[in-house]
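Q: I'm writing up a methods section and want to include an example of the input and output format. Could you take the sequence below and give the corresponding predicted structure tokens, formatted cleanly so I can copy it straight into the document?
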Amino acid sequence: MSTPEEIRQVMREALERQRAQVLATMSASDQRLVNIAPKPELEKARAKARSAFRNALFWPMAQASAAGAVMGYAFVLAALASLSGHAPNPLTAPVASASGLVALLSLAQFAYLIHSR
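A: Here is the clean output for your methods example:
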């Protein structure tokens, strides 16, 4: 019983037992009112939660992708300068380092969001 799904199943069963006990003590008219009360649409709520989760994951991945592209561009410029016999631009290393840091932080944020879900 260590997985979250097993814990949810146990909680659902406990709630159903408690609901059955409460319904047994209610009058017939009260039971009808409980049964006709609108229930939340579970699938709609799940779809909304999945959509919100995907939206939350968009920005970390976009940041990591953009930083990776900048870092790749800096490395390509340095490699081209090196191949042509010129010294690489002195800004190449700091730009690549900063882009790498942004990419790592974005991926860490992505991993945190995945893990905390």
